[in-house]
Design a protein that fits this description.
CATH class: Alpha Beta
Radius of gyration: 21 Å
Strand content: 15-25%
Shape: globular
Structural class: alpha/beta
CATH topology: FAD/NAD(P)-binding domain
Distance between the termini: 30 Å
CATH superfamily: FAD/NAD(P)-binding domain
CATH architecture: 3-Layer(bba) Sandwich
Bound molecules: flavin-adenine dinucleotide
Largest sheet: 8 strands, mixed
Amino acid sequence: MQIDRSLFHPDYKPEPYWWEAARPGTTHAKDLPDTTEIFIVGSGYSGLSAALELARGGRAVTVVDALAFGEGASSRNGGGVSTGINLGKGISGGPGQEKRGASLQPVLEKLLGESLAAYELVQHLIERENIDCHFEPRGRFVGAFTADHFPGLQKKADMLNRLLQVGARVVSKDQQREEIGSDFYHGGLVIERSGKLHPALFHKGLLDACAAAGVTLCAHTKVTGITGSPGAFVVNTERGPCRAEHVIVATKGYTGDLSPKLRKKLVPIASQIIATEELPEDLARELIPNGRTISETPRITSYYRLLPGDRRVMYGGRARFQDVSPEVSGALLHKMMTDRWPQLKDARITHSWSGTVAMTTDALPHMGCEDGIHYCTGCNGSGVAMMTYLGRQIALRILQEGRSDSEYADLPFPGVGVPFYQGNPWFLPIVGEYYRYLDKKDRRKGTG
Ligand SMILES: Cc1cc2nc3c(=O)[nH]c(=O)nc-3n(C[C@H](O)[C@H](O)[C@H](O)COP(=O)(O)OP(=O)(O)OC[C@H]3O[C@@H](n4cnc5c(N)ncnc54)[C@H](O)[C@@H]3O)c2cc1C
């Protein structure tokens, strides 16, 4: 693909914008101990949230990461903090998924209730640990991609208000400019109880809190295998072994071959993001007047927002379903951004990056215990709140000697229904481009 270099600012960097304020590093790193009570693989939100709860509960905890601390999704995401999970919208998509969703409705409703608790946990942690991460509870706007999607948003607003009291309401196409400086959508849904933060600063705050609570933190320590059983695990790492009573795997889209069983249930998908240069104040002001995070209703969605300071745009989505350079994904995302906001045609890209999310076939996050090893996974692109929450739920389960009050504990976890699937999603480019084709078709027809 021919790339138009004029889209990129002279100071352009192929890395997350967030790293300007908090680059993943090795601050607080210690040597790997020989033994620990609880060994956590993965230093993202879920690993750190579990570690913090356990350390405050008086346990000896070690967290290791193959990369620098937080270098996975937790310092790369869009920073949207939402209360919702994707009811009935899994990677398998389609009517079969919806039918399964209907039979599970009562359980799904309880799960949704916990997603509000997840949102509140993030707020609570920010306050309790005094984390300066630009948290702004300014709500979310979900744009209707076609006119046919709009009635569904009304139903969703009713359901959300009934179950969660999140201040959801629809906005017609005529009123839409109160929410977004664009005529791209056919109205939308506002959810007041939703927010945004600076993901890398939130992560740094959790990391600092863990260090202060006495957690042993080890960077660049890849776990290569886990043997044994509860009470007597041996975790092998590239820096040697460590004995542990309990092990938590908190590796999400970066799970790789560490857990073959989990791997078969997850589809790792790249999500790409760009940030723009600072925009003129009056232009920036009209884009998202209420400072909400934006998402939308097609199968392949974009998510976007203003960055802290309200002068730059962050635009994220699935530019491509296979690995591409940040310049290729940047150019594609710029086109998607200007489809929604033609007034940004001259806004240059300063940062372009990607990260990996873990999708599940039922679109739900999961926590459980496999061969005695605790895990939480499957953020489906929405894990700032949920993964922080599930990390804490695993910690509580260990502190409560196996008892969990969470509806997520041991929820049936379906595998990816593709024969011989081992965690390498060879089918994604095909399925992804098919969904993109369907979205375009729906948009042309106005149906959905
Ligand atoms: C581009 C992008 C945009 C997103 N936007 C949003 C958003 O706006 N809102 C939202 O709610 N969610 C969003 N998400 C999802 C959110 O970022 C994740 O759900 C969340 O960060 C997951 O945290 P985690 O701790 O579970 O995993 P991660 O932060 O991914 O951490 C997993 C860690 O495990 C480590 N690891 C893996 N294997 C090993 C091993 N063998 N040994 C040692 N360490 C290992 C990795 O190095 C990694 O650091 C987005 C994700 C991406 C990628």
